[in-house]
Amino acid sequence: MTSTAAGRETISVFFPAYNDWGTIASMIVLSFRVLEELGVVGEVVIVNDASPDHTGEIVGELARHYPRLRMVTHPANRGYGGALRSGFGAARGDWVFYTDGDAQYDVRELKLLWERRHGADIVNGYKIRRSDPWYRAVVGRLYHHFVRSLFRLPVRDVDCDFRLLRREVFDRIRLTEDSGLICTELMAKVALARLRIVEVPVHHYHRMHGKSQFFNARRVLRVLVNMIGLWWRLFVRREPIGPPAPGDRGRADAAGEAGDAGIPG
Fold it and tell me: Compositionally biased, Low complexity: which spans (predicted)?
């Protein structure tokens, strides 16, 4: 994979978006400001997961001012995992950063991850303090400890969606989940592939707009059932964690078809 002509590393920033029209514009503007401050050639990609609000219109308007802003649009909702897979596949940079479009994380803290990337395959954020209602914080903590023990994960916070990854990671692992379980699948396969993980503390803020698409009893129960299935496939059946052999579908199922590095201007 080739970087820019000057040999500098490039980065793709992407956000999965669903009912995030109230925050997505600020996330985009701040992302380009961060890339400029870092002196990094990059792009911003929005994965519009069939959002019924004004997300598409807002991104379309901003794209007139930011040539390196792109939008991937799903005609039907594919779920959080499906949105992440599309984002990873659409990314053209040497590095891929993602966080949610609801602004519960401060995209300016990407700088902290970027500074720690040397010698790492993935720089994983972990929440300094979870800014959610008490019941979500309690259930989230229990969920984290359960998942960490079940999958033997060497990370403090499996569900902190504030991550920076080398694009080559997807030469080693293949993602298949369409639900929020994709975060567990990602970190479990990263650990099984013995990829290098660096952890960085980041802030987590109250949701200012919209509401969680994940946190309800029925969906959590479904994720737990699917989680046991994922554990069975990885640790009992020992299914391959990587992409198909050359000549098959390659990385397409892991994250869609990725573009070339270099990020045209």
Answer: 255-265
